[in-house]
Amino acid sequence: MQTVIVTGSSGLIGSESAKHFAQGGLRVIGIDNDMRAQFFGPEASTKATRDELVKNLREYEHHEIDIRDADAIGSLFRKHRGKIRAVIHTAAQPSHDWAAREPQTDFTVNANGTLNLLEAARENCPESPFVFTSTNKVYGDTPNRLPLRELETRWEIEPNHEYAQGIPETMSIDATKHSLFGASKVAADVLVQEYGRYFGMPTGCFRGGCLTGPAHAGAELHGFLAYLMKCCVIGRPYRVFGYKGKQVRDNIHSFDLVETFAAFIEKPRVGEVYNMGGSRFCNCSMLEAISLCEEISGRRFTWQYEETNRIGDHIWWISDVRKFQSHYPQWKFRYGLREILEQIFNAMR
User: Which pLDDT band, with edges at 50, 70 and 90, does 19 fall under?
Assistant: First the structure.
């Protein structure tokens, strides 16, 4: 049976990928050692999602392997050699705040772990599509240099600007403050590109905006909409960091993102890069998200404002997804902002 290897398989995007491909008749080899609980505490643990996958997906096999363990990764790939249809790499340390606490852990997970997977793929399945969940943080704070206007509830780019439809892949990643997390993801991102361009492997970097959905184990340092709604539901105070709460994020549902992975795997390209987020279809500011959470939940929201913004944080980010759409015109967004938040609310309730 053809097999898809998914790292971070108990996380938001990994579990969505596991369900998608298992339901499509493929065997899924999941790799996840629940480091999210180590990063963000017990309430961010992905153990419940792992148990759900094991219970409900007949063709799912779980391995609690640390992607930094090159020998274990290599052994697993060799075991399935000749059957690997694709590799979907979603495992990561995902927070730029957390990265500053333990830079070595952040870098070895994000960069060295990715290198281990690329080498295992090159040795055992070099013809199989390799999908990497990268991040818009590879652009550092360069987006903050864009000409932005302050509106009532958000910052917005000038309507006649070349980036009015979103930020494209041509934006430079140089001469900017990335945060240490951004730097480790840049290293991984460039490695994935290079294994494509140098070795001719079908690799794709998907530079995500805010990735979201009802399966997200949101925490203060990672998981914007999920953690926001959690605070609203349980009455926990929420902190907004800088930019008057008008910073803008685009949000893409995990289902929609995994559909892009599937399109790429079906018709892969070599060393490709895509900005991938909610684009103009699905985006909001902090203030707008807070208002919508209150509306959906029927509860007043308690939040406090801190003037100091997070280091390297974006004031305005909207992804230009037109490059991907030109390569895969059959793909379309399915979930908008309200529907995403309603799903998160119902899952938490």
Answer: very high
Cα separation values, 94 from 133, 195, 255, 338, Å:
11, 23, 19, 25
What are the pLDDT digits (tens) for 233-288? 888 999 999 999 999 999 999 999 999 999 999 999 999 999 999 999 999 999 99
Closest CA to 276 of 189, 180, 159: 189
**279 contact partners, CB below 8 Å, separation of at least 6:** 165, 166, 250, 318, 319, 320, 321, 333
Sequence-distant (≥ 6) Cβ neighbours of residue 273 within 8 angstroms: 134, 169, 189, 193, 204, 205, 207
**CA-closest candidate to residue 124, choices 67, 95, 176, 85:** 85
CA dist., res. 113 & res. 29, Å (int): 17
Q: How many residues does the chain have?
A: 349
DSSP category for residue 143: G
Residues paired with 4 in a beta bridge: 28, 86
325-340 per-residue burial string, b: 16 or more CB within 10 A, e: under 16: beebeebebebebeeb
118 pLDDT band, cuts 50/70/90, is very high
Query: Which class for 245: exposed (0-12), middle (13-18), buried (19 or more C-beta within 10 A)?
Result: middle
CA 264/CA 256 separation, integer angstroms: 13
